[in-house]
Specification:
The structure holds two protein chains of two kinds. Chain A has 16 helices and nine strands. By secondary structure, chain A is α+β, with helices and mostly antiparallel strands.
């Protein structure tokens, strides 16, 4: 955060009275601001990208449904149907190493089985009410946007590390931002627009930072933890297990089923599911992870979610004979397990239904705006001091607005192309948008990119509606199209010339 | 259904923010009461969410929705200013002007990045390996403090003008904690 660059008018300053917080030495604030600026500038682009992609990723389930709105839409699936789907998937590839079965949930009203086919390619089959595999899930854009947030489309280990490091940098910026903002409560409601560019950006930056602080702390800490897990576990394993990370992960995997590759009849998943739900009547099964199907060492992990818990759910391990071996312990007495199980839902906002998702989306966009305004403040400060950096001003505006545009373009390609390559589309669109920094003014670039984005969003909604109209069984398809049109309209409105407004 | 409780409780933090804004807007004898009332409503919203949505889920949901409600209130109260008018006199602190010396910049980057990271990792490992308690809890808590300490170390080293002091502290912490963790070497 930037310290407020001006004092309030004398009347206002008088009105707010004496500060209740101890006065922070000016030298300390100045040093903190220097560190805050340096860190923010070094990581600005990465933080911006991770925050923007994270805001979009909140609606990953909804996008997956939007990409394939034909269903079948299921609100529940019987254990027999689940078993039929598993047997059908194993029949397609008897050598499948494991199967991930997602059961119908409010956020994901589908029965799907994810497995590798005989060629080793990962596939997700969609099943109907009876468990028949009636199609294959095709959600390239949803996968693209999720992976952009979690690994930036880099090799998995490196990608997670870079995202985790970005989370650390964001967390550090929050710490230095709070410490360099001595008027944090005094200015809590001061939001002034117009006039000096620097004042305007500073108010936007500081107000969103202060009121969104709980959210910012939660997502940056959980994000950094999730991203750095690999390296933390790796070093831990080096210190304690001679580098064998599997032993470290085994501490969190619950009852162990001995590997036995000798062939066996594929286990009855229906019986396992029935037994688990009978033992845990208050919980709702959300997914099953069938391991080594068709082997004597086969077993299934059943994930159960209990209402009112901030948790990814408890995992029950059932062996191939249908015997419940026990729970992993995510919702047991262990503090560590409970904290671990809360990380993912807390990070993505997947714990409180659509109100929390909408809040996470908007607060995430707010954090994105905080990042953008942080760089804008630095650029405005340079300009105020007579050292303007016009190229950087244009490039930063172009980069900031490149992401909505590139996301929209990649979604359109994903929708219309029979062989979509959303990563390439996103990369090209980002480059093209950034290239616009060569010409025009920052305001002109911003306006042009916003208009193009609005046009693309409207085009996506219309194309999706036209292409899927007959098959749109899942109402979320229409809902997302309507939301895209509304965002397109809002973006367009921001580019229209402003009429005369009362000015204070 | 319980998810909608977050929405139902949103008016409480919003009302709390309204009271705080009133206290902020003008001095009056009621000001302390408005501040007390504002914060009480925020606390009440969090407290009410516990039986309705769960001990961890409720407060997390209310904080998210409440933050957004407060931001909406701030946005509604936007004060538009004349773009042609000159800005008020600059009184805000400026970032400290440091001498631009290349080696100091590289050293500062090394301290904030790798060295602060190693020191934080050492502290996390020391907690995971040496602290009392259940293994999994030690590992998760140790893991969770790594990003937090790394972020703190980063903020400190980038702000502190005495970078050799920062170097000495971080190097000592890293040596001590990693040494302790690897010496014990068992969970």
């Amino acid at each position: 955060m930037d310290a407020s660059p001006d004092k309030l008018a004398p009347t206002k300053a008088k009105a707010t009275g004496k500060p209740i917080w101890p006065r922070i030495p000016a030298d300390f604030v100045r040093a903190m601001l220097a560190g805050h600026s340096a860190l923010g500038l070094a990581f600005a682009a990465l933080i911006y990208l991770v925050c923007f992609s994270g805001s979009v990723a909140v609606f990953t389930q909804e996008f997956a449904r939007w990409e394939q709105p034909a269903g079948p839409v299921l609100h529940a699936a019987s254990p027999q149907a689940v078993n039929a789907a598993v047997q059908a998937a194993v029949a397609k590839n008897p050598k499948a190493h494991d199967l991930l079965v997602r059961l119908p949930e409010p956020d994901h009203p589908r029965l799907t089985v994810q497995s590798e086919d005989v060629s080793g390619r990962e596939r997700t089959y969609v099943a109907d009410q009876a468990g028949r595999l009636v199609g294959e899930a095709r959600t390239p854009w949803t996968e693209f946007q999720a992976e952009l947030h979690t690994v930036l489309h880099l090799p998995s280990t490196w990608g997670r590390f870079v995202v985790g490091l970005t989370g650390v940098a964001l967390l550090s910026s929050l710490v230095s931002g709070v410490l360099s903002h001595p008027r944090v409560f005094k200015d809590a409601f001061a939001f002034r627009w117009g006039g000096s560019k620097r004042l305007q950006e500073a108010d936007l930056h500081n107000r969103i930072s202060v009121w969104g602080l709980p959210f910012h702390l939660v997502v940056s800490l959980t994000g950094a933890f999730l991203g750095l897990t690999t390296i933390i576990v790796g070093v831990l394993a080096l210190a304690t297990f001679k580098g064998d990370t599997t032993k470290a992960y085994a501490l969190f995997s619950g009852p162990v089923v001995r590997d036995d590759p000798r062939p066996a009849k594929v286990m009855d998943v229906a019986a396992a599911l029935t037994a688990v739900t009978a033992r845990h009547p208050d919980a709702r099964p959300t997914y099953l992870y069938v391991q080594h199907p068709g082997e004597r060492g086969q077993h299934v992990n059943v994930n159960l979610v209990t209402e009112n818990r901030l948790s990814r759910g408890e995992t029950i391990v059932v062996d191939g004979g249908g015997k419940i071996l026990g729970a992993v312990g995510y919702e047991g007495d262990s503090l560590g397990f409970r904290v671990l199980s809360a990380m993912t839902p807390l990070h993505f906002g997947w714990f409180g239904g659509w109100p929390v998702k909408v809040a996470y989306f908007l607060l995430g966009l707010g954090l994105t705006a905080v990042t953008a305004s942080g760089v804008a403040i630095w650029l405005a400060r340079r300009r105020d001091k007579g050292r303007p950096a016009p190229r950087w001003e244009r490039l930063w505006v172009a980069f900031a607005w490149s992401q909505p545009l590139a996301y929209a373009f990649s979604a359109l390609v994903g929708l219309l192309s029979p062989t979509p390559a959303p990563v390439a589309a996103w990369g090209l669109a980002t480059l093209a948008a950034c290239a616009s920094a060569v010409v025009g003014t920052p305001a002109g670039i911003s306006k042009a990119l916003r208009r193009i984005t609005a046009g693309l969003l409207a085009l996506i909604a219309l194309a999706h509606g036209a292409l899927q109209a007959r098959a749109m069984v899942d109402a979320i398809g229409w809902g997302v199209d309507a939301a895209l049109l509304a965002i397109a309209l809002l973006l367009t409105l921001t580019t229209l010339p402003r009429g005369s407004r009362p000015v204070r | 259904m319980s998810a909608l409780w977050a929405l139902a409780l949103a008016p409480l933090p919003l009302a709390g923010a309204v009271l705080l804004k009133r206290a902020w807007d003008s001095p009056s004898p009621r000001r302390p009461w408005l501040i007390l009332g504002g914060w009480s409503l925020l606390v009440l919203a969090i407290g009410a969410s516990v039986p309705l949505m769960g001990a961890a889920r409720g407060p997390a949901a209310v904080l998210a929705v409440g933050s957004l409600a407060a931001l909406v209130l701030v946005a509604i109260g936007v004060e538009r200013r004349n773009a042609r008018k000159k800005a008020a006199r600059e009184l805000a602190p400026e970032p400290s002007d440091r001498r631009r010396v290349a080696w100091r910049g590289w050293l500062r980057g090394f301290l904030a990045g790798p060295l602060a990271g190693v020191a934080a990792l050492g502290c996390g490992l020391a907690v995971a390996i040496c602290a009392p308690g259940q293994i999994q809890s030690r590992m998760v808590i140790g893991g969770l403090i790594v990003p937090f300490l790394w972020a703190g170390g980063m903020a400190w080293t980038l702000s502190d003008d005495k970078i050799l002091r920062a170097f000495a502290v971080l190097a000592s912490v890293a040596t001590l904690t990693l040494g302790a963790a690897f010496l014990k070497g068992a969970l």
